[in-house]
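From the shared-data thread, chain only:
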Amino acid sequence: MIKGNNIIILLFMNKKHLPLLLFIITFIIYSYTLMPGTGYSGDCAKFQFSSRVLGVTHTPGYPMYSLISHIFHWIPIGTVAMRINLMSAFFASVTVLLLFFIIKRITGNSAAAFVTGMLFAVSRTFWSQAVVAEVYTLNSALIAAVILSLLKWDGEKDARYFFLACFIYAMSFAHHLTMILLVPAILYFIITTDYRIVLKPANLALCAGFFVLAALQYSYVFLRTYSNASYVEMWAYNLKDFMWWITGGQFKEKMFSLTLGELLFDSVPFYIIHLKNQFHFVGMVAGLAGACILIRDRLRLSVFFLLLFFGNLLFTLNYGIGDIFVFFIPSFLVFAVFIGIGLDSLYKKILSLQTVTKGMRISAFAVLSVILLVAGFSGNYHVANQRGNTWSDEFTGFMLDNVKDNSIILAPTYAWGQNFLYKLIGEKKRKGNNILVHWYWHTSAILKSYPEYALNGSMDVPEAEKFRNSFGDRDKTVRSPFVFGREVPKGKSLYFHGLSMRDIKKANINSRKVVSINRCGYKANLYMIVKKGEDVTGKVLTLKDPAGSLKPSGRMSKMTKKFHRKGTLEINFSPASRGFLKDGWSRTELSEGDFLFSWADSTESTLAIPMEEPGEYSLALKVKPFAYDNSPVQSIKLYVNNRYVDEAVLSCEWNRHEFFIPPECWKTGWNTVRFKYNYMASPVEITDDNDLRDLSVAFAYIRFDRQD
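Structure, as tokens:
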């Protein structure tokens, strides 16, 4: 019989199977939490549909990613979106596997390498990118492959590993240009290992050939431009076009754009918070200890890894974009190496104890490792998990089912536009009738290039007038999807991004249909814009999903059943719970306190709440107002099915309020819960923040509990 301690010993001593086990476990985790379709971001949807048509995405074009993802899109599993998401999961597991071998080569400790690999696999940012179609797991795999090849060259004195590192590094420039940040570390490693290898003309010529071959990958951009690919965002008709894109294009002004004060007091604390979120406090301590141990014992190797770490941060901390946290992943990868070294030291100290048996010592290390991994998994699962994120697919699919042929789709945001394009290009939902012709950053460019498609019109219908007035005179992006149906040549529909109220006000479109569908359970609204003075009787319609194509997601259905069974419903702004949101809500965000929240971006916001049997309910809120210097006092008035319930006055920080809703306010079926706020304001107009949204109150959770 094998005793419990012997099982643990076998687990950590059977080194041959640990790498394969690590790859399988992580791939299962990523596959289970994989996003089934679209919905994470506009870039995600873009990578999904462009993979099918060999398109060219935004700068720097990502030719390597495009070619590899095109191979993955042929895998006969699920939708195209799911297959490209699965590609991220695959390269995430490859990265973790390579990290295992890096730590194993440095420490010789398979147990520490396995635990560290798992800890990095479930770290928040990396895990979040492993379950959606994004470029960062492939980038991480390339970085890890370069590091491992260099370490093997150093340890085995085999020049083939040096050339392998050069080849991978050269080719990686056709994927993500931040690979240039590795140059100082790689040059230092070559010089301190054997600089003479690059002095030989034959070797130098071979390395130069690698970089020429890598540069040729960018011919993909020219070929797809001139072959009129279905989607070309980074076009290259000449060298000038190409150089503008390849050097950063529209993002140049954000590079090294922060002041010293912003860098020290905003960016650095922001990074430290994200580092803590990746590995938690114990992981941070292990990483710092590992870095100190590496500096003490192997100074040359420590300089190499520190150059990798700070080389990444030198650029990313000075890059003023909203989603900069994903650019931290290479530094997190290096920090994971430090964690592995720290855990190896801990493992050896535990084994050196003579007062207990070897089995007990290994068991102690295993228990500490499990605690560390459980803390990482449980702390990051709710953020990274995209398994129930289906509402974007449902919405765009329903929208297109209710749109006539030869229509012009006006997307409210970049993300929604890309989600619609995925349906049209990636899944060919309306093949031959809704084909992308061009995509522009500004509507004015389309109006200039295609005067026959001039889209402006009178706003005489009361619903349309109300919609316009909600924006005032400011030039803001339209927030509801619009479809302009008109007589256009078959297969000649245009996709618009960033349609502003200024563009609409210039209009002169005569009588054209406009479809606006707002997702709320099972409902869609169809509006008509008509000629001034024309009879609008019967032109304003409400459509209650006659095709039955819009259904609650599986997670939303489970939450509804639990609410009916237990009388408790918590909306915590996870992908599943957003199905209960109606109008007046912004995107889900992550607070510095490590929880999800969403802003109300109007003076009113509403929920759709299903009720099987009316009764008395309490409504608990965790909320914070958008406060600024001399801002008014914010308050929330609660209405249920247009019946006033109560009012709460908010303090400036996160605070909890509770309302009691009597039975007579409810009805069987779907109920409208409405919050009305005292004021809303736009950060860009009153602060240094560049946020264009109108904000009123942030919600961390909304919880209904039955009282009787």
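Residues 1-13, 434-554 have pLDDT under 50 and may be disordered.
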